Amino acid sequence: MQTLILWLHTDLWHWCTCLFIDVAMNFCQVGLQYLAGDISGGNARCIAMLQAFQEVIKDYSTPPEKSLTRDLTAKISSFVSFFIECRPFSMSMGNAIRFLKSRIAKLPLTVSESEAKASLCADIDRFINEKIVLADNVIIRHAVTKITDGDVLLTYGSSCVVEMILLYAHELGKRFHVVIVDSHPKLEGQALLRRLVGKGLRCTYTHINAVSYIMHEVTRVFLGSSSVLSNGTVYSRVGTACVAMVAHAFHVPVLICCEAYKFHERVLLDSICSNELGLFVSLQDQFILLYPLITCMFFDTRGK
């Protein structure tokens, strides 16, 4: 099977990779979970990667006649290459790697190895707690203020932060209905549907081809995001742009839920400039772009 020349510049989600390189066992396990799709979602992938780095740092010892900062940075880069072979990094994971490397580079030369390792592990814990956990809590508390009794809320696929918003609003006693829009090949919304119904939420499930028929009943749309670029463009799973454009046509507010650590300085004008190319056997070995772009004209940037 040959890849179309049009997509040769994009990152391919590899379904087979060479594992005969010097990597730690926990890295192999996380990488294989990336490869199989067992770990998905921007936050889950980033946390799993950082925790794997944390274990490597704990087991690390500086070789004789080598500098900790240089040698550890080189090892981190080799592990990053292994992860990318399993599945290309998201922009948020790239931001996390840059944070970790900057902390390594700023280690004082006089610090002992044990103190350096403890400091780096603490930095990783702080990054996860402040940039992901606390950020999600802030998003949740702000987003539930947008939900009122009688609302019909639409979401697409499965976003962990959107799921937490819906569950928290339900715990507060707000009465609303959830519409879950889904699409092939992953059908992530089915798992979200089961979890929400299990918690007692009233839900409707539909495929993306029917989104224009259900949108006239919707009062708000909540969408997750893989990244937000510096020109306001949202980078999210395939199908998100379609849902946002239909909502815009029906004058339904679209709210993007995205942590600040996913913000990126890049500027993309379309989905072809840079993307991740996925191969799905269920689609007769077809390649599809995994992340479309949503321009800021299709969602509410005012926070009202």
Helix-strand blueprint:
Elements: E1 11-12, H1 25-36, H2 42-59, H3 68-86, H4 91-105, H5 113-143, E2 151-156, H6 160-171, E3 176-182, H7 189-198, E4 202-207, H8 211-214, E5 220-224, E6 227-229, E7 234-235, H9 240-249, E8 254-257, E9 263-264, E10 276-280, E11 286-289, E12 293-294
Parallel strand pairs: 1-10, 2-3, 2-5, 3-4, 5-8, 6-9
Antiparallel strand pairs: 6-7, 7-12, 10-11
Helix pairs in contact: 1-2, 1-3, 2-4, 2-5, 3-4, 4-5, 5-6
Radius of gyration: 21 Å
Which fold name fills CATH's third level, the topology of the largest domain? Rossmann fold
Mean pLDDT: 82
Helix content: 40-55%
The CATH C-level name of the largest domain is Alpha Beta
Largest sheet: 5 strands, parallel
Quickly count the helices: 9
Give the CA-based shape: elongated
Instruction: Give the SSE order as H and E letters.
Output: EHHHHHEHEHEHEEEHEEEEE
In the CATH hierarchy, the architecture of the largest domain is: 3-Layer(aba) Sandwich
What percent of residues are in strands?
A: 15-25%
Overall number of structural domains: 2
- State the distance separating the first and last CA atoms: 49 Å
Number of strands: 12
Q: In terms of per-residue confidence, which ranges show pLDDT below 50 for 5 or more consecutive residues?
A: 1-21, 280-291, 295-304
Structural class: alpha/beta
CATH H level of the largest domain: which superfamily? Translation initiation factor eif-2b, domain 2
Q: How are the strands of the largest sheet arranged?
A: 4-3-2-5-8
